[in-house]
């Protein structure tokens, strides 16, 4: 089966040729640069999200989902890391001025290794961005940044990172910080349970000076919400890809494992489990797509910045993340039981899939945070 | 809040003025004709699904969902009964010849009380349509039908019903049977747990003669699958409407019930439950819409009959029904606990909502049937 | 199969002869006196819990569970109502003085219609007993009670009720109030969703005067906790009995319903569901028994009053209620799906079982209240 | 808090001093002999289950649960491995003759390093013991064994293993096979996801000759069922210990993590989660204890061999394993979400606990096998 969209088909071929079969290695926290990423860069498709007006491939978030599903089917760390490159780009696209876009968005079109990270989360603040402790003090034409960012996907490999910092009490802003700026330091590479093929780092800012022109427009929390409204559907799509991999590993097992003298695939309980998985995968895909389409429409609209200023992040994006995190975990949990003792051996892939899918529910806003947010902002009665 | 679509807004106003507040009466298995249905017919909007080429309003299944949600928010029996009118119409639209369409589809455009039922299910066969025992014997230019159809929504009120019958071993066909044909008898009105405002009947066919010209094209099972591919998204939307009603009843309670000296709405656990519900409602809506859009595209396509012949019913429709049945039950179950002892009193609405929503999971193919079907037909690995 | 314990066997025979087959009538909120209860009283086994030292049968709570399971298998309203007679008795046994025991506990041994109710819950206070609004003012040798008690099981049939009232801010006490005392009024019989065979009433106290000698010892909240520590295992056992009935109705259906040409009982998915139910029933019974045994040991101990003063209600009793409420609902929910459309008809028993079992999770402290309590009082790390 | 039972208290002290704090090392598949096990042996408490009549400590299975909970709280691999020593002992105790008991059970009392393993499972047969392919052919006074046993806990460290083998079609028997017998080979140490501190090996039997006197009495399947009836409650207790560890890690986090300016422990949702966990832990413990008590009573009874011949393994033991596997996974799953991003780091203990607890549901009969068994053997209606 080939995909009718030739670009998506390229990714399909890439996954088959450069990812499938290398999962154990990808799961071993390998050193970067990673051969498959170098290959994606070589093919010029690593930054698929750069808008056409800057010379990029111009794929929408909706189209990105198809890519992310395929990549995550192969390896979720890879999917998350590569797709994560679009996070800073989304922020700059909406909140950047012309010079910022020219210098920090456009280069990604011609240089497939050029991208940014996002550095928002801090240890004490956790999901409460308003408690951000990193400060940015204005000194003439510069800002002086100080703080410690707990987790920053891909910062160790990025050319710059977008940093959330407090310029005054209750006033958070975002700054473009080149990774080679003085005072920026990648402190530590996290050893995460899942997504081990990518690089989650702590980033320290110690008396880091940057020109004032690198401050992005808009309130910082809204900027993060806008960027995550683009990213969350893709995180959700990671869960879809992992879930499809679980299904396929089960199907393969069902075809050859014998139970009661017949292939397991003919057992009613096996069929019921796979049928339920299939329904859940279709559901996950539907919510992820809806969230992607909503973001794409906002960005294509007349004033995305104003939209996010008034409404905050999209409801559909948080729903997609929450539901895909829950259903993805349900599917992978079922998977860890499907193979009996075999699935308990480290050489089996199922636990990698389980560990990988957990990030959807945990990283960048856990389930409790999302539920509270949904109640606070999006629970509105129909007839009032 | 008003709906931008004036026709949907009509239904919104209808629900507010003719349904809300009458739930206890609607839940009492009232005699037909039902005042709210008469009102819908008076407004000329009861048969919204008649194609424009026959002079109807021509709403797609996708648009129907918005109506069904609103109706089900008010009363699910009403929603299901009215939307159920489109089931026979969908069958005739795809499998009828010109005369059949002229005589049994077109009249619904001008006569708001004109519609058909579907009579497929039998007691012993259950979900296994291939075990249908009703027979149709050809006698010259006529067919002679004999059998007992277990549940037929709205047959007691319909002008005709589409009957599934066996013309030879392994050969099922569908027939248009006028309700006033000799030998057709509505045997019994079921007292169902939910959906009590509508009429679920047993229909007996005893030596019932109809002209051979009333046989529809195509294999009977495919015809039923095609028709239910239109109906299942609407059944799923019923669950969405009921679920939204549960949410709104909870929100109202949370605003006034005091716990620990504060409104319950400020309690974290209450917020978490409502946030989860909200996410599930958004999810249910997404899968129902996806299923509706798929059906609409098939029907707008060049040869829907051929499509269903080759592919059977849509995967998205069974997924929508399964997932909305599961999440709808989860939401309503949570609801029955939300109000403490108050919710255990018959005067409270919550148990009506619980009873109503259960039909989504039970009627017309239960969860086990759907899971087995999904495994058998729709579980396909990505890389083969 | 007969029970080795002749008293339990009596109840088994009673259920078979006087309850099974009359469920529809019992579910119709029939008027009292109820024939089966009259029969139990005639046999002299309606008050099985009266201690032997007062001339009663002296069954422990642990032994009561076997009775309650059987009764609930037949009809949960009956089980709950009859077992609920022991609630006031448990309070008097622990907190009563000799005269109170002689006058309000001992008579239950000789008069099988003599028993008390408990009137604690109020509408606004809900589960927060400390917010009780009913007041008891001391006037010489009397107390003057005023208040409205929201739900009082069996008060309409009882000879007296134990009332929780505030004698001073923060000081709650319990009083024995004869039902024929002036100012006591059964205001309303609730129409509940489940347990329809019993009588849940609102009790109003309007300038009700009782002698001061009818005040029980101890703080009121502790007294209620002690009494519910006896009752909750029995409520949990109700869920066990209902769950066993669900299982048996399923087993019967599985034996005769055909699927794919074989009895449903041979289908793997059916077997898996029944196997899971069986495990859950065994679990429910285990937690209920543990809770009963703990209470029995406390009461047989040297100073039960002091025990409850120091420790409050037993942890095992709240756990039993919570877990049996959850698993009972899970089992009955599965049941409502098992029978397809058949189970959606009012003539089927499954929805009665579902409605009945819900009270375990809802009445007398909902799940949220219990979880909060477990965290606040009983979550203690092992190594400190 | 100290345990009133001095032997249990010894284990508590052992866990605190020799296990807590060494989890990362224990999770690294360390080489044996393992220091903590050597310490247990040094204290003479590693074989607590040897009957007093053979000079052992003579603890019942019920008492063993308290030990296993504590050990599993520290490290489940340790708990499982040490408790697993009792599996072969239980088989010999019930099915051994005097010489077998003298030579293979009694030595465990005086030599704390002396114990046996059980080698039943094969790859193709999986949970279907009747499909065992290992054969034992009688040659004069000897048996010649050939086969490959997939997983055998602790065989690499044991003095002997009890092997299930086919002596004729449909006739399975158990044999005591000294690990130093010719032809016995530990082929491979499995790298399991959890329980990494213990040794799961594949054992090959290649033309292995043993004296016929080492064949145990009884049918092989019954023998395995009897032995697992002793072991399964202990496996269930492992889940209890792990679950208590999850709870305590959560409690510790809740006390120090700040949310909204207050400790997380004061958040209602946190409290609700911990309250639910606590209820589940109490439930798990209740079912494990019930299963232990049932086994102990059978063994203390007049003829345990006959009991198992007639009834097979105990229902309570399979229920304990199933329910503790399910609730243990639920608790640990909740745990993996509780700590946000922190819990996703490999240095956090929560994933070790999740991986460890999974074995309860997977190893030695998965959930589907148990459910099918419960339906087939233990689902009996009350009134027949």
From TrEMBL, chains A, B, C, D:
<comment type="similarity">
    <text>Belongs to the acyl-CoA dehydrogenase family.</text>
</comment>
<feature type="domain" description="Acyl-CoA dehydrogenase/oxidase N-terminal">
    <location>
        <begin position="8"/>
        <end position="110"/>
    </location>
</feature>
<feature type="domain" description="Acyl-CoA oxidase/dehydrogenase middle">
    <location>
        <begin position="117"/>
        <end position="207"/>
    </location>
</feature>
<dbReference type="InterPro" id="IPR009075">
    <property type="entry name" value="AcylCo_DH/oxidase_C"/>
</dbReference>
<dbReference type="InterPro" id="IPR006089">
    <property type="entry name" value="Acyl-CoA_DH_CS"/>
</dbReference>
<dbReference type="Pfam" id="PF02770">
    <property type="entry name" value="Acyl-CoA_dh_M"/>
</dbReference>
<dbReference type="InterPro" id="IPR013786">
    <property type="entry name" value="AcylCoA_DH/ox_N"/>
</dbReference>
<keyword id="KW-0274">FAD</keyword>
<keyword id="KW-0285">Flavoprotein</keyword>
<protein>
    <submittedName>
        <fullName>Acyl-CoA dehydrogenase family protein</fullName>
    </submittedName>
</protein>
<dbReference type="InterPro" id="IPR037069">
    <property type="entry name" value="AcylCoA_DH/ox_N_sf"/>
</dbReference>
<dbReference type="Pfam" id="PF00441">
    <property type="entry name" value="Acyl-CoA_dh_1"/>
</dbReference>
<dbReference type="Pfam" id="PF02771">
    <property type="entry name" value="Acyl-CoA_dh_N"/>
</dbReference>
<dbReference type="InterPro" id="IPR009100">
    <property type="entry name" value="AcylCoA_DH/oxidase_NM_dom_sf"/>
</dbReference>
<dbReference type="InterPro" id="IPR006091">
    <property type="entry name" value="Acyl-CoA_Oxase/DH_mid-dom"/>
</dbReference>
<dbReference type="InterPro" id="IPR036250">
    <property type="entry name" value="AcylCo_DH-like_C"/>
</dbReference>
<feature type="domain" description="Acyl-CoA dehydrogenase/oxidase C-terminal">
    <location>
        <begin position="218"/>
        <end position="374"/>
    </location>
</feature>
<keyword id="KW-0560">Oxidoreductase</keyword>
<dbReference type="InterPro" id="IPR046373">
    <property type="entry name" value="Acyl-CoA_Oxase/DH_mid-dom_sf"/>
</dbReference>
